[in-house]
Amino acid sequence: MEKTKILMAASEAIPYMKTGGLADVVGSLPKYFDRDRYDVRVILPKYKCMSEELLQQLKFICHFYVNLNWRRQYAGIFMSQYDGVTYYFVDNEFYFAGDKPYNNIYEDVEKFAFFSKAVLEALPVIDFAPDVIHCNDWQTGLLPVFLKTVYGSDNFYAGIKTVFTIHNMKFQGRWKIKEVADVTGLPEHIFNSGELEFYGEANYLKGGIVYADEVTTVSPTYADEICTPEGGEGLDGLMLERRRHLRGIVNGIDYEVYNPMKDKYIYKNFSVRNTSGKIADKRNLQEKEGLKVDKDAMLIGIVSRMTNQKGFDLVAYMMEEMLSTMNVQFAVLGTGEEQYVDMFNYFHDKYPDKLSVFIGYSEEKAHEIYAGCDAFLMPSLFEPCGLSQLMSMRYGTLPIVRETGGLKDTVQPYNEYEDVGTGFSFSNFNAHDMLHVIQYALDVFTNHKDRWQEMIERAMRQDFSWNTSAGEYEKLYDSCCSHLTV
Ligand code: ADP
Ligand code: GLC
User: Which of 91, 95, 222, 271 has minimal CB crowding within 10 Å?
Assistant: First the structure.
């Protein structure tokens, strides 16, 4: 039987480039498809800021030129294998030479218009005719648009279906219509309110949602939320129109990479049958971070982009009270907005043995926090899926979350009467509600140790590997391709 051919297009994927969870998803999901039935490959930009070691491994395949209206731009294609998956890279040093993957939006709209078109132009050249192109987030939003408007009549492209996954509705890739029309060469008439226009601007995310055959997002609850005015970021009407073609498929994590039994970053490995290593990891983390070594203090981890999405306004509001009145400690890792960075630095200066902070990106520290903490705080304002809570549960670190998006779908709140649950949650975006649930968690941690231990084991026994969700994507691809087998 011929394999179904899938090309995943995205702006980031581990190990090549990562700024957030999108990279984890694109870099791990492809490994989990049934290889006898699916040939899944990935295509990314070739950023100059990728690690030198990885850049060295890429093999040049070919080059061609892409027309972007009156511009004619060079596109090189490179290739690599990682964990048995084929990766392609689009090279162009004018667009991808920056010291980070994203920059000013007016540059990014041109950069990713180029990328989307170059991906399509590359297909006949690399001799890969996918049945489905799976696009991710606004950076690839124009790909289905180009496919249907510019390439639709060409036989090579005519049968290709598109799936568009929304990882975050907040980022839409919006810019002036005149300039987007100029850099893309797309016909003027498609910048109307039913297609690419949005409050007087061009909107790449909207283009992807309107033009893709199927739309997904990264949890069932977020799929519902984006159909409402509160969660739709202005696109809820469109999402309702597309509801029949929209589904929420919850993300998984890579169980090989996040594995407490084998993790090379952590001080002591442990398993659900024997969690004693976790106690050593906590002690090690406290020592390393300059926190008071105290097994009775509830150590709470935070690993996050520092932005308002993640609920740091609630944290800022309650931090003084938590640090001054409760036996809790925080190990914080993240980068982002200055106001939150300053807030954590301030509390570190004031309570150095109760709150440690590392501003920056560190894979090693992230793993140490997931493994060594008792609890993990994620009081997000909104959360399409969230991966950090899945990672912490894998290491028996109990998440404390707000019931939104994927957090609601993946964390089962503790219920002391029925003795169920894998973490703690609160519903309203309210600082006192967050505080009360942290106080409750501390009470269980301190006074009901057996219950806490049972919860650790339940959290570790959950299956958030890709196995189930990769199957959901397979079904979706099959439904896109059903016309091929009739
Ligand atoms: P988002 O994609 O919205 O940032 P997710 O929870 O889906 O949130 O994914 C975040 C990913 O980024 C996780 O793999 C998390 O461990 C990682 N991460 C976030 N900040 C850092 C950091 N400063 N250092 C290392 N890893 C980080
Ligand atoms: C986005 C979302 C996050 C999700 C990730 C991967 O960055 O903010 O909730 O887990 O994409 O889908």
Answer: 271
